[in-house]
Structure prediction request, 578 residues.
Amino acid sequence: MSGVHGHVLHYHGHSPVHRLPAAVKLVVMFVFVMAVVLTPREVWWAFLVHLALIVSVIRLAGLPWRFVLRRALVIVPFLVAALMLPLVGPEPDVVVGPLSLSVEGLWGLWNVVAKAGLGVMTSIVLAGTTEVADIFHGMDRLHVPPVFTAIAGFMMRYLDTIGGEVSRTRTAMELRGQRSRWWGNTVAIASIGGPLFVRAYERGERVHNAMVARGFEGTMPVLVETPITRRHVMVAAVPTLVAVMTTTFAWLTSLW
Amino acid sequence: MHVPDGFFNGGASIGAGLVAAGGVGAALKETGRQLADKRIPLAGITAALIFALQMLNFPVLPGVSGHLMGGALAAILLGPWLAVLVTTVVVVVQAVIFADGGISALGINVINMAILTAFIGWMVFRTAMKVLPKTTGSVIVATMLAGILSVIASALGFVLEYAIGGTFEVPMGTLLAGMAGVHSLIGIGEGLISAAIVGSVIAIRPDLVHGTADYETTRTLTAPSKTSIGVFVAGGVAVALALVLFVAPIANPNPDGLQSVAADAGFEETATDHPIRGPLAGYQVSGIKSERWGTVIAGIVGFAVISGIGVLISRGRSGQSP
Prediction:
């Protein structure tokens, strides 16, 4: 793996979504997810609008569905947990085939599936169309404190190194007959953690000294700055406004 | 523990976001002067380590697995304020770039996995080190305690937040028992992993452990081995299990505080005549059909953890190498 550039989470492309500055995408993502979460669960059509929005952005970005769905698997454990809700929710129940399902539980399930699903797709679009370094630079532009992005930058820099080391150690352990049981696994994780940390730190110390010697003052210099133009803002405003208006209308209809 | 979007209502999400922003803001203020310092790369590497270790799940019960949270570990290595920043970076990057944990649930996740774990872990560690002799063995015992209690605090934080702003009504007694029980087990894993990491860091580079920066720790003669820690925990669990066989039947009929709160709130009856109904089966004692049994098992686990802690402290105090 080659550090931050060309990360596995990134899907290379040249779509309008890829070209949008990261700062703009971060704002759109945040507003969109908040609009989704604030949508009352009873107003089903509003979720269709949100879904149509995110699907069209995915199409526009040219992200393959396999890529999106494979990455969306992170929420599966939570969805499996939410599947319990209709079985154990309070009365009244509806009878569906052999099952007696709680109405309140079904609404709870729908709420989690719809909102977690839309939320996870939004993050995937951001990470899929934006280089990691650009995301941090976008955060800088949005006045996220520089200490925060500096730590995040170092973290991403070392993640591949440490992650690679961890997985190599695990492969080696499994080849030597280590099985993933509770005790064995915990001890194994624990025993590789310490030396790994010290090794990575001493390496990081040297890299940091080298960076300071070359004039590093806490923030990475930006070589190519994409200016945020009026066009960018207008492109980004379309889905944002649609989502916000949808949520507003959804609220109004649920109040009536 | 990475809560996705849709588990908490809008008000709770925004409120938690404000609280989390306040906490992170305070942490930024405390650490702001250290930007050009070497502690920033140290913080970044700690973040990367926690991130990498969080990807490795360790099974705690059949069907339930846990992973490291790392707040206590970061606090002991870096101090609580920088630890809050480090774990917040991990949580934010996981949500924004890896889609693990919801964007709207960032506030909740930062409070539970960064602020609570770092501060509870730090306080437990410092308190334990005040009581224990200043040896590397004690550092390991104190780290273990900090790891366990930080995870339980995080789970309790989740339950409290869910009681305030969860999107789905669950009986709080069951949720509490399930979360506390399972997270006691996850906490043991957290404690072991943190203790082993801090143990080897303090052996190689004691200057990198912020939690002991203000005093010298004397090396114990024999290096603390992982198996001896394991023997103590196993011993503690065994003692507690024996205890609970006698104590649990007596203690169980009395409802605890939260159950009586639940009764006042009017959803107690839904709690007694149904199986466990928490939305977090992933964190729960799955396959347990009645709340009574869930509580007993959670009780056993709780007793086991507390006894284990007692055994560890007593061994640490007698000055032996743990």
Notes: Residues 242-293, 316-322 of chain B have pLDDT under 50 and may be disordered. The domain at 10-317 of chain B is CATH 1.10.1760.20 (Arp2/3 complex 21 kDa subunit ARPC3). The beta strands of chain B are 58-61, 64-66. Residues 241 and 247 of chain B are 10 Å apart (CA to CA).
